């Protein structure tokens, strides 16, 4: 019987050199395949340690692509294990957006102040 991995164990393999992925309840080690993926590294890295069943199917991968999975197979997902919540990078990016707005408002204030000073000096 194939080795079973929990969601938590799989989630730990989420870096470029150590990248696992779940597709249709099976676990694949994509570490060596990342560089070769015709769809690029980024999409695989984004899904590292997670269930990629949906995204993999959405692309409509060819039979050749499905065949490639056989070489990457390391075991099965323990479906009874507790799913791991993905930590989104959202808050930090929205903070950056906020800072960006702050800088824009400051720049606008400086321009307005410069215009006011210019007109005051005209009189
Ligand atoms: C280990 C799993 C995967 C394997 C073995 C694999 C393999 C391949 C292969 C062989 C192709 C070339 C086109 C084809 O033959 O279908 C391809 C294209 C592509 N793959 Fe994957 N893929 C995997 C996972 C993923 C995942 C999880 C995504 C997530 C979105 C993805 C996104 C894409 C995209 C965007 C393309 C380009 C499609 C195009 O330009 O027409 N792949 N993949």
Automatic annotation (TrEMBL):
Residues 2-78 form the Cytochrome b5 heme-binding domain. Keywords: Electron transport, Endoplasmic reticulum, Heme, Iron, Membrane, Metal-binding, Microsome, Transmembrane, Transmembrane helix, Transport. One of its GO terms (biological process) is sterol biosynthetic process. Belongs to the cytochrome b5 family. InterPro entries: Cyt_B5-like_heme/steroid-bd, Cyt_B5-like_heme/steroid_sf, Cyt_B5_heme-BS, Cytochrome_b5. It is found in: Endoplasmic reticulum membrane; Microsome membrane. Gene3D superfamilies: Cytochrome b5-like heme/steroid binding domain. One of its GO terms (molecular function) is metal ion binding. It is a single-pass membrane protein. Residues 80-89 have a biased composition (Basic and acidic residues). Its main location: endoplasmic reticulum. Residues 80-99 are annotated as: Disordered. It comes from the Eukaryota. The keyword Coiled coil does not apply. This is LAFE_0F06326g1_1. The chain crosses the membrane at residues 102-120. One of its GO terms (cellular component) is endoplasmic reticulum membrane.
């Amino acid at each position: 019987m194939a080795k079973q991995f929990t969601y938590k164990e799989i989630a730990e393999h989420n870096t470029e050199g150590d990248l696992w992925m779940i597709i249709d309840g099976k676990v694949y080690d994509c570490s060596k395949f990342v560089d070769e993926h015709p769809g690029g590294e980024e999409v695989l890295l984004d899904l590292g340690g997670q269930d990629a069943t949906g995204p993999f199917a959405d692309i409509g991968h060819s039979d050749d692509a499905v065949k490639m999975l056989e070489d990457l197979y390391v075991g099965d997902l323990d479906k009874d294990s507790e799913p791991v919540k993905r930590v989104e990078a959202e808050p930090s990016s929205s903070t950056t957006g906020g800072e960006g707005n702050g800088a824009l408002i400051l720049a606008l204030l400086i321009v307005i102040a410069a215009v006011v000073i210019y007109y005051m000096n005209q009189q």
